[in-house]
Amino acid sequence: MADRIRAGILGTGSALPKRVLSNADLEKMVDTSDEWIVTRTGMRERRIAEPGEATSDYATVAAERALASAGVAAEDVDLIICATVTPDMMFPATACIVQDRIGAKKAGAFDLSAACTGFLYALANAIGLIESGRIKYAVVMAGDLLSRITDYTDRSTCVLFGDGAGAVVLGPVEGDRGFYSFDLGSDGSGAKYLYQPAGGSRIPASEESVAKRLHFLHMEGRETFKFAVKAMASSTEKVLQEAGFTREDIDLLVPHQANIRIIDAARKRFGLEEEKVVVTVHKYGNTSASSIPIALDEAVREGRAKPGDLVVMVGFGGGLTWGSTVVRL
Ligand code: ACO
Question: CA-CA distance, 81 to 141, in Å (whole number)?
């Protein structure tokens, strides 16, 4: 019998806007302070896309960089998934726009919506197809321009979010490399804690929906916070156990970057050293589904994540959803 195919990460890439929105800039826009933002979130600045730009502009660059680092040609890609809650348009999928722009002529392409957990959900889909032998190479991207749905008159949310995209190329790997386990979860009873009320089929766009500011993201910060800490720690525990590893085996934890206090609390619950955790929240804010692949790509480029390292990625977000995975690079 042929050996089981295992999927792994062949390359990473990311793309961020040049424009910086600092805490000092936000102080001029809403009643907030650098001190409040830093102590409550750990954020100092975030990146914001220019008017007229779209998620696919950043996802395309991230995908091209990931393909270059993997040494895989776009023509050989079988599947493209883009995790996003801010697609270029409601349809067609942003993944299709990227498919055309990178020249991935034989690839299937679709978008996936699981808010900030989207990247982990997208990975799980691509891995399943690679490991079943149906496809060989996949580009899994996450791209979000949350600035497009952020209400810059609402101080409780506008300080938190930033724009960007990250991508990985997945394919079959040898030896002990590759993905070991997955945990994906959801609890729709918490949908009310983090959502964009209008623009879908329940409340289509109207003058009234715009006047009521229903096209912006709404969030119950405290509820999301409590849920996040619990979900991050228990999900990490679960995937490690399933994979037969312990916390001592972890070389690097790449968590969703929503708030340094959430990352720290989850890390402490889990009992992991600070130097094993990748943090970008101070410079990019919460870039939604993109935050994990952006952080992973930075860690790879800085030499913090090396071939052979055991990496845990964990995230949570609207849905509510959560997820985690264990991968050896
Ligand atoms: N500047 C100054 N004061 C503020 C600001 C601000 N930007 N925002 C809120 N405040 C005030 C509040 O009005 C409140 O004042 P009050 O006590 O007079 O009512 C006070 O600060 C405390 O507010 P809390 O909401 O209790 O502050 P908290 O410590 O919970 O921090 C925060 C808020 C940062 C939003 C935190 O709850 C959090 O990070 N939650 C999780 C958010 C998250 O992870 N979201 C993303 C999920 S991923 C996805 O799918 C997009």
Answer: 6
100-156: per-residue pLDDT in tens?
Answer: 999 999 999 999 999 999 999 999 999 999 999 999 999 999 999 999 999 999 999
**Which atom from ligand 1 is nearest to the alpha carbon of 319?**
50
Q: What does the domain layout of the chain look like in residue ranges?
A: 6-175, 180-328
The alpha carbon of 213 and the centre of ligand 1 are apart by a number of angstroms equal to 19
6-175 CATH, one of 3.40.50.1820, 3.40.47.10, 3.40.50.720, 3.40.50.920: 3.40.47.10
d(CA 319, CA 121): 12
Residue ranges lining ligand 1, Cβ < 6 Å? 32, 36-37, 40-41, 115-116, 155-156, 159, 194, 219, 221-222, 224-225, 228, 258-259, 262, 286, 288, 317-318
